[in-house]
Specification:
The protein is mainly α. The chain has one domain (about 70-260): Ferritin. It has helices at about 5-15, 15-30, 75-100, 105-130, 145-150, 155-170, 170-185, 190-220, 225-235, 245-250, 255-260. It is globular and about 55 Å long.
């Protein structure tokens, strides 16, 4: 039986987006069908490094990315490209959560393999929309903040669950509703509909981060809210800036103490 960790590593290392999507689907379907599993004797994970990705987009500091309005086709294409880049990175992040951390319950690996498959589907929707707008992934510059956090949390599944799904990916819960409203005001219901799908499914992804963060806290006899607050202070100088989508974050497993740690409580 193929080892899920090695299938995950193959997906991470693949640099071609179309092939990465195919590998992701094949790995997830193999797991669902019982044709792949978590092997107790799998080789230990290799040191984290840059994941496989195409030569473009050029990666720059977020400060170097131009701000564009949604009133023009170019501005809407830039938004779709930015979200596609996030979803492409999210495929790698989900598979790295499968590959890097060993000895966890089977449900953990099922969750993150399913999330990888969702992220691949999201990327495919956005890449197709980008083509309709006359562009392709890689045409515009992008930043690499998501993978930098993967590197910072490579030695701790607890920190990874706290800071990648529950902070960086949860930011999408905060900002996507506003994007959808602006796109509909600009007459781009096609892109808005895609973002509606992504927003709905990302709540479940962040909820998986909440679930496994709390599982790790219980395993290590740590208090979740205090642990979350400490990780925010250590890695993010206190945490992300608001405003926050409180309803979506509560649906994704944040309690009032954790929202208070973000400075987001009512």
């Amino acid at each position: 039986m193929p080892c899920l960790a090695e299938l995950a590593r193959e997906c991470i290392d693949c640099a071609d987006p179309a092939r990465k999507l195919r590998l992701t689907d094949a790995a997830y379907q193999a797991l669902r069908a019982g044709r792949a599993g978590v092997a107790a004797d799998a080789a230990p994970p290799r040191a984290i490094g840059a994941p496989g990705r195409p030569e473009r987009p050029r990666l720059v500091s977020p400060r170097e990315l131009p701000r564009r309005g949604l009133g023009t086709p170019g501005g809407r294409a830039a938004l779709v490209h930015a979200v596609a880049h996030i979803e492409f990175n999210a495929i790698n992040l989900a598979w790295d959560a499968v590959y890097r951390f060993r000895g966890l319950p089977d449900g953990y690996y099922r969750d993150w393999a399913a999330i990888a498959a969702d992220e691949a589907r999201h990327y495919a929707l956005l890449a197709a929309r980008l083509a309709e707008l006359g562009h392709a992934y890689g045409d515009l510059d992008a930043h690499d903040g998501l993978w930098q956090m993967a590197e910072a949390t490579a030695d701790s599944v607890l920190a990874r669950m706290a800071l990648v799904p529950r902070v960086l990916e949860a930011r999408g819960l905060d900002v996507t509703p506003g994007m959808i409203l602006r796109l509909r005001a600009a007459g781009d219901d096609v892109t808005a509909d895609i973002l509606e799908v992504i927003l709905r499914e990302e709540v479940a992804h962040v909820a998986a981060g909440s679930r496994w963060f709390r599982w790790c806290c219980a395993r290590d006899r740590l208090e979740p809210a205090a642990t979350f607050r400490g990780l925010l202070q250590r890695h993010l100088r206190g945490g992300p800036k608001g405003p926050f989508n409180l309803d979506a974050r509560r649906a994704a497993g944040f309690d009032d103490d954790e929202l208070a740690a973000l400075g987001a409580a009512d």
